[in-house]
Amino acid sequence: MIVRGSGTYRIDDEEVPIEVGTFLRFDPETRRCPVAGPDGLSMIAVGARRGSYEARGPF
After folding, report:
1. What pTM was computed for the model?
2. Running along the chain, 59 residues long, what does each successive block of 10 average in pLDDT?
3. Per-residue b or e along 16-36, where b marks 16 or more CB atoms closer than 10 Å to that residue's CB
């Protein structure tokens, strides 16, 4: 989740604009690279091993 600033996220061969409030989810094999804009970029990133998530509700 982007918490401050803006920029772009290079996802495989695509560039996606990001700003405060943007939330992204990637499969582990996805190539990705955040690129900060002129005001910088702060984000929160969480990772988990494939198969480690077990659904516990109707999400």
Report:
1. 0.75
2. 97 96 90 96 89 77
3. eebeeeeeeeeeeeeeeeeee
